[in-house]
Design goal:
Length: 504
């Protein structure tokens, strides 16, 4: 049987490298013996590759022409064996900036348009909420998000009574640092600073009450050491026992990268991101001298307040007339402090008597009921917050976790991230995302708590991840939504320790 090769693809040989040398006069010189041998070896190796490729193409085309492989291949084209696993966002380095929500070129284009508009003495039309008025359609969402947050905190606190949460808090005490020697060094430095003007005296003068100052200095040095060595990698695990995956990359961690676990709490499952409370959201920003005078509240609560939620202890300015923008300058015709606004108690208000706890009446439900209600509140809070953030701006620092709800960031110089000295402590403000407002603490997903199998480091590529609060409610019996299916990796079979070597 003769196989036709008319359907085979044409093979074009790649050009050989130019091995001829050019003399200074411009004429081609005779190649040397070494160059000739190199060229022959190259031709021989490429010829063998051409022969293998031609044989593969001939066999493939002949096989398809004989049994109709084209129709056979179309039947299975829609199927795939690839997993739909969603990769977690990569942890940024200290020197890396957060990704921009809006491209830099787009920001430059908008800045050019604003500069051109300022040069013209004409009015710039502002829409709510840029003109100080509320977006009426988002007021119900603000109330729903605030109620969902209160419900979520209550449900999570009830589920935490039956589920253990671990957090890694590796301390440099376990490493090569000796905190006693370091505190003694600080104490000696404190004594040196308190010495008399006479350089011959190597000890402080015994004045009345001087020994109390020495005890205070020693206590301060120990506190400094305790604060300095309390470094954690931020790893959280939901459930008992904790996993054995070696991912502790904090400074001074052991070579094995094993975590040092301790019992965590609500702040590890739902970390709180705070923001300055603004009385006037389109007014001037909070200055550095006002950092201790302005209340700091959860950023999600501040977002709800600016979107239309009224909380007596945190008053805000509600305008009845819009603000006008003429040649880049804001013109406001209302009074600065209307009479109907009361200062309120602010930060000094007792939080344990707030309406967040009083509005919950879920004490009759079991743990699974709390988990189900908490999962619904979590989804409702995320959905409502994303809709509010489409209209109301939220700013975040590109290098640290500072967040300011409003059209612009504050001017407090408390940034300690990468190259903060060049910015004089100012934050590198940019547009925030939902992860900046509500940071998701991703934890390793445990499929079956009744199985009792530990999550080991050798099989970590088969495990999935979930936000900590979702994993908490999932272990309590709540149903996880379909939007987390790509993160859980339930479709991947986890092999046993003795089967790992057989996995292809």
């Amino acid at each position: 049987m003769i196989i036709s090769c008319a359907t085979s693809k044409a093979i074009v040989s790649p050009p050989l490298p130019s091995l001829a040398t050019t003399a200074s006069s411009g004429t081609r010189a005779r190649p040397s013996l070494r160059v000739t041998c190199t060229r022959l070896l190259y031709v021989r190796r490429m010829s063998a590759r051409w022969i293998r490729n031609m044989h593969k193409i001939v066999v493939q085309n002949s096989f398809s022409s004989l049994i109709g492989f084209d129709q056979f291949k179309l039947r299975f084209r829609s199927f795939s064996i690839d997993s739909t696993y969603k990769e977690m966002p990569r942890k940024l380095k200290k020197s890396e900036r957060k990704p921009w929500v809006t491209s830099v070129n787009e920001l430059k284009r908008k800045a050019r348009l604003q500069r051109q508009a300022k040069q013209e003495a004409s009015e710039i039309i502002l829409r709510p909420p840029e003109n100080g008025l509320l977006v009426k359609a988002l007021v119900p969402f603000a109330c729903e998000v605030y109620a969902a947050r209160a419900k979520l905190l209550t449900c999570a606190s009830m589920v935490l009574k039956s589920t253990i949460v671990y957090s890694c808090s590796y301390s440099l005490t376990y490493g090569h640092c000796n905190p006693n020697k370091f505190s003694l060094f600080l104490f000696r430095s404190y004594i040196y600073l308190m010495q008399n003007d006479d350089p011959e005296k190597g000890y402080p003068v015994c004045e009345p009450g001087h020994h109390i100052k020495l005890q205070i200095g020693l206590l301060l040095s120990r506190l400094i050491v305790a604060e300095w060595i309390n470094l954690s990698c931020g790893e959280v695990h939901v459930g008992n026992p904790p996993h054995k995956i070696r991912t502790c990359n904090v400074r001074g961690s052991p070579a094995t990268k094993e975590h040092v676990w301790e019992i965590g709490g609500m702040e590890h499952v739902l970390p709180v991101v705070e923001s300055f409370h603004l009385y006037d959201r389109i007014g001037r920003a909070v200055s550095h001298d006002e950092r201790l005078e302005v209340d700091r509240i959860p950023a999600i609560v501040e977002l709800c307040i600016q979107a239309g939620l009224d909380i007596p202890e945190y008053p805000t300015r509600r305008r009845t007339f819009p603000v006008y923008n003429v040649a880049g300058r804001m013109i406001d015709f209302e009074k600065r402090f209307p009479k109907h606004d009361s200062p309120g108690d602010g930060f000094w208000e007792k939080r344990n008597q707030s309406s967040e706890i009083k509005s919950m009446h879920l004490l009759g439900d079991d743990v699974q009921g709390f988990a189900t209600r908490g999962m619904e509140a979590w989804e409702k809070m995320l959905l409502g917050s994303s809709k509010i953030m489409e209209k109301y701006g939220v700013q975040t620092c590109g290098y640290c976790s500072e967040v300011q709800v409003g059209p612009k960031g504050h001017r407090v110089r408390n940034c300690q991230a990468f190259k903060h000295q060049m910015r004089d402590g100012q934050h590198a403000w940019q547009e925030a995302t939902m992860d900046d407002l509500i940071p998701p603490v991703h934890v390793w997903h445990v499929r079956d708590m009744q199985d009792g199998r530990l999550l080991v480091n050798g099989l970590k590529r088969y495990y999935g991840k979930l936000p900590a609060v979702v994993e908490l409610f999932a272990q309590a019996g709540a149903k996880v939504g379909e939007n987390y299916a790509s993160m859980m990796r339930e479709d991947v079979a986890v092999p046993g320790p003795d089967e790992e070597k057989l996995v292809v």
